[in-house]
Amino acid sequence: MGSFVLSCESTADYPRSFFEARGIEYIMFHYELDGVVHEDDLYQSVTPEAFFGALKAGSTSKTSQVSVGEYTEFWKPMLEAGKDVLHLTLSSGISGTYNSAVIVAQTLAGLYPERTIRVIDSLAASAGYGLLMDYLADMRDSEATLDEAASWAEEHKLNVNHWFFVSDLDCLKRGGRVSAATALVGSALGIKPVLHVDNEGHLINVSKARGRKKSILALVDRMERSAIEPEKQTVFISHGDCLADAEFLAQEVRRRLHVPRIEINYVGPVIGAHSGPGTLALFFLGTER
Q: Fewer CB within 10 Å: C terminus or N terminus of the chain?
């Protein structure tokens, strides 16, 4: 491991085994399901099948970001151990956690003037956020300095492409992404909005496809247009309890773009509370978003 701590939030949507293997520290968001508040502990206490099953059965879920106090308790032991910290947050276009992290970093800088806490707005979410962390862990393990890793993140974070579609338009309606009329008509006609995360880190509705197969192929089309050397990339796929669709998407990406490594994981409960069951997302490095 390198000379600094690399940290992020649970909304990077990778399994706990990934963070442990890569030596990445994470702090947990919170979500509420059927009136019970849970930590986003990467599906250790509530399984993804149980979470998405509850949403399919009509439950609703609310989410809350990391507090200032939680950030303080998260970072203090690292600083007291003589470590510097490079932390990437969930996109500021989705959550206010970046602002909270910056406030705490500035406060702790006064208490630990010999240490460094660098906070970067990833402008990313879910496994796109996780993809950045994977690359940064490689840099840290190759003895890059904190400043070198931070500079790479700032320079390349807008190369991280997020392309996805959702099945549950009611979740998008509750989040204000589509109107009630659009959700009603879209659900009746089987229309799936294709979305991405733009350069400001906001979720943007880009196009529509009718039916799941066409929606999946639309994601591959997007990757084919802009992927940087896909034959050398690791590509990440997240799904909202629709593994068969994720495997079909992976098959098409391999067939058309010859990608050597594809990782498939569940969408986490915080992102999943807003995107809903049946969400399918593709993450890769591209020339632009």
A: N
